[in-house]
Please model this.
Amino acid sequence: MRNPAVDNLREQFLERLTREIFHKRGSGFVLKGGGALRALFGEQRLTKDIDLDFINPNRSADSLHHSIAHAIEGAARGLPFRNLTISAPGKAEASPRWKVNFEDADGRRQHVEIEVSRDSARAVPGAVVQHPFTPRAAKGIARFWVDIYDEPALIAGKLAALLGRSVPRDVYDLDLLHHTDKQPSAEQVTWAVKRAKLEGTNPVTVLRAHLEGLTWPRFMSELRDALPPEVATRLDETEWTALKQRVREYAERQLRRLPP
Model:
């Protein structure tokens, strides 16, 4: 199995891009999703794109767009891209998304998206903390620091994701996070349920249905190739079933804390 973090030019670009975005402290960006878990858990979690919140009320849309365009330019500089194209969003969008496409030296087409939410109502309630990010693929780059939400907030965000959709990576991520021995507040759990927009459906019923649908074939087709090889090789069908059970028990404990 090829190691995507070492051999893939996209991984080098993602790490360089993350560094460029957080080059200036206090810029207002918060790394979330797979990028935040990559910072926390290193080689146990890779990511295909970059998801950010933009929480500085004193910075304009023009400033946001300038920062992202500058970061993309800086990250791409010196990399052996072929046929690089960048699609920039409109400045009026609440969650603008940049799309970067290129070919690597072997002619493989690569695609990276950078999505930035400017909607404060979508941001998980919780503290923003600085955390070191250690590059694995990018050459000649030392460890740098990124802003992420703390573990309880990240858990609440992943709980909302697991209730709102049925995606294998949410189960894997929540299993990583709950082993940190941190737990979200009752307020954050309540936020997660509201964020999932369950329309009155029992959240435990939704959770169990989503987990039931995340079969071993879905893990193999949707998640396995996105994991580092050393993680993917130890995750067999028995461990995937055990992982889902751990997540179910943990998530249900959190949901029992909801007010009546």
The chain has a mean pLDDT of 91. The beta strands are 29-32, 50-54, 82-87, 97-103, 109-117, 128-133, 144-149.
